């Protein structure tokens, strides 16, 4: 290996193998340390590849950008029923009242997805709620029939259906 | 309809045991008990962390009255936990009638349970109501049948917080949906001895199940007793969750049996020596710590299952696991004891129980 004026060993660029290596890089991947000796030109092209790896600051910034919408959007939300804020919930992990599931819904859905791998209940339905669902379905069906009856100008049937709809929806006002 | 007229004395309970300790039921050599709990809350009330003293009191009264009106069993009794002392509460924890959180909680709260201690209803725990059913052996399906009926009776009286999207609404989102935690308590000494237990845990965790110690979340494993329960409560039905656990348990029990067989065929004398030494220690020791007794009882329990020891009943052994715990010993003695005093009384109590068991067996 030839020596420079200062007595350093002069290396050739290990990439192009033509010019003198003036840039010396140390890469550490896992526990393996690797030294690279390159000329300025080759180093430039490799360097642009290297800069593609995000720095810790960049990683943090992108993380904050991901979380920020949730925090900034949800942080102002306070449940009008129990007074719990979304941020308080996030720091303690406990909700304040059943209404929070509605108020914090937007923040809760990704959280539940992460916790349970799902956001839709498929288990037991209390019979009260069950009755409610049955009644809603029935009402929907009656309204469809009513529309059909009106289309067909069967007003006698329409009047009958209307009365039944009144009867059924009358119950709800008491329950809700 | 009312609760049992006579107020319950904790010391009366100390003479009996819960039915789940009988040591009977399917696979009861390895599966000690099957337990299911449901978390429920009352609509239009805040969860307990946001409830003030007045609301807590009102909740306690409402839920307690509705439990009574629901006519769950004829022998249901109710204990107000705010009115009893910490040793009594510890006793109820050891009996699995209340949780550690419930015992250590604040304010108006209570528990209702029947004479057999199969059903327990915790009022103002983390949720307004926690229903629990424990059965001896591997009987999750039967436990579900019972708890489903109790829940049906209660929902006629109480307006539960429920949404069609998220199911039963709970204070902690980790319980939302079914609000159900189904768990099975297993005794796995041979898998521990042969260092295969880690493999079991890894396999179990991949199925969305969790392994815990004797008293649930955050408790240490002792006496080779493990609780396996579901982690997810949302997105799967109660039946599906139970089926997952039901499919896993027989594989673990047969794995444990294989490990026991292997121990016998390879190290018969060593295993027998270990079992008999543990038994001997229980019969002669003058002081036994709570940690040591769990280990000794675990060895002896396996010895009985393998036919090495024939003069003790499984029920006696299962009971000893619970009766030698600090709360039970203090209740039996009727006074508070230091750790040193407990070790002495624990040893004396075990000696007495084993002498009695042997003389009965003849």
Distance between the termini of chain A: 90 Å
Q: Which CATH class of the largest domain in chain B is shown?
A: Alpha Beta
- CATH superfamily grouping of the largest domain in chain B: Glutamine synthetase/guanido kinase, catalytic domain
Shape of chain B: globular
Which ranges of chain A are low-confidence, i.e. pLDDT below 50, for 5 or more consecutive residues?
Answer: 171-176
The CATH architecture name of the largest domain in chain B reads 2-Layer Sandwich
DSSP helical segment count of chain A: 7
Structure notes:
The complex is a heterodimer of chains A (176) and B (362). With 176 residues, chain A is mainly α. Helices cover 56% and strands 8% of the residues of chain A. Chain A contains seven helices and two strands; from the N terminus they run E-E-H-H-H-H-H-H-H. Chain A has helices at 40-50, 56-74, 86-92, 100-103, 105-116, 127-151, 155-175, and strands at residues 23-29, 32-38. In chain A, a hairpin with a 2-residue loop joins strand 1 and strand 2 (32-38). In chain A, helix 6 (127-151) runs antiparallel to helix 7. Mean pLDDT of chain A is 78; it is low at 171-176. Chain B has two domains: 10-256, Glutamine synthetase/guanido kinase, catalytic domain (Creatine Kinase, Chain A, domain 2), CATH 3.30.590.10; 267-361. Chain B has twelve helices and ten strands. In chain B, helix 3 (86-94) crosses helix 11, helix 8 packs across helix 9 (290-305) and helix 9 (290-305) runs antiparallel to helix 10. Chain B is globular. The model of chain B has no long low-confidence stretch (mean pLDDT 92). The interface between A and B is large, with 32 and 42 residues.
């Amino acid at each position: 290996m030839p020596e420079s004026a200062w007595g350093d060993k002069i290396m050739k660029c290990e990439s192009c193998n033509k010019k003198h290596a003036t840039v010396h890089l140390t890469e550490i991947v896992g526990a393996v340390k690797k030294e690279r000796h390159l000329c300025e030109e080759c180093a430039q092209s490799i360097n642009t590849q290297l800069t593609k790896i995000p720095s810790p600051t960049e990683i943090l910034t992108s993380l904050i950008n991901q979380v920020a919408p949730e925090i900034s959007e949800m942080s102002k939300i306070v449940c009008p029923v129990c007074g719990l804020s979304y941020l308080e919930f996030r720091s303690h992990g406990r909700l304040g009242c059943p209404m929070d599931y509605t108020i914090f819904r937007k923040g809760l859905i990704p959280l539940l997805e992460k916790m349970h791998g799902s956001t839709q209940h498929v288990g037991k339905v209390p019979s009260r709620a069950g009755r409610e669902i049955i009644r809603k379905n029935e009402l929907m069906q009656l309204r469809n029939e009513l529309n059909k009856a009106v289309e067909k100008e069967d007003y006698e049937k329409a009047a009958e259906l209307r009365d039944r709809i009144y009867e059924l929806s009358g119950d709800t006002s008491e329950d809700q | 309809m009312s609760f049992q007229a006579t107020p319950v004395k904790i010391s009366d309970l100390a003479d009996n045991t819960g039915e789940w300790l009988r040591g009977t039921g399917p696979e009861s050599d390895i599966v000690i008990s099957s337990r299911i709990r449901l978390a429920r809350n009352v609509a239009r009330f805040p969860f307990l962390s946001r409830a003030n003293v007045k609301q807590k009191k009102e909740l306690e009264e409402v839920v307690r009255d509705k439990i009574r009106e629901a006519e769950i069993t004829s022998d249901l009794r109710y204990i107000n936990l705010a009115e009893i002392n910490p040793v009594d509460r510890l006793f109820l924890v050891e009996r699995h009638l209340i949780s550690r959180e419930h015992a250590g909680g604040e304010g108006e709260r209570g528990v209702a349970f029947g004479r057999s201690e199969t059903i327990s209803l915790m009022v103002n725990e983390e949720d307004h109501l926690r229903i629990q059913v424990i059965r001896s052996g591997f009987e999750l399906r039967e436990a579900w049948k019972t708890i489903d009926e109790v829940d049906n009776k209660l929902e006629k009286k109480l307006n539960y917080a429920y949404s069609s999207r998220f199911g039963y609404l709970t204070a902690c989102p980790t319980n939302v949906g079914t609000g159900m935690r189904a768990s099975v308590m297993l005794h796995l000494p041979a898998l521990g001895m042969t260092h295969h237990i880690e493999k079991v845990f890894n396999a179990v965790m991949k199925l969305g199940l969790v392994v815990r110690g004797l008293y649930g979340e955050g408790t240490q494993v002792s006496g080779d007793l493990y609780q396996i329960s579901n982690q997810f409560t949302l997105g799967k039905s109660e039946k599906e969750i139970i089926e997952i656990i039901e499919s896993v348990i027989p594989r673990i029990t047969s794995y444990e049996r294989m490990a026991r067989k292997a121990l016998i065929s390879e190290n018969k004398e060593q295993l027998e020596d270990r079992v008999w030494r543990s038994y001997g220690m229980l019969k002669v020791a003058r002081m036994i710590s709570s940690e040591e007794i769990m280990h000794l009882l675990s060895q002896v329990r396996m010895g009985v299952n393998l036919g090495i020891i024939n003069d003790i009943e499984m029920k006696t052994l299962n009971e000893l696991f619970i009766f030698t715990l600090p709360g039970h010993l203090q209740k039996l003695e009727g006074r508070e004891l230091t750790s040193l005093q407990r070790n002495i009384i624990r040893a004396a109590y075990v000696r007495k129980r084993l002498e009695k068991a042997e003389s009965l067996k003849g």
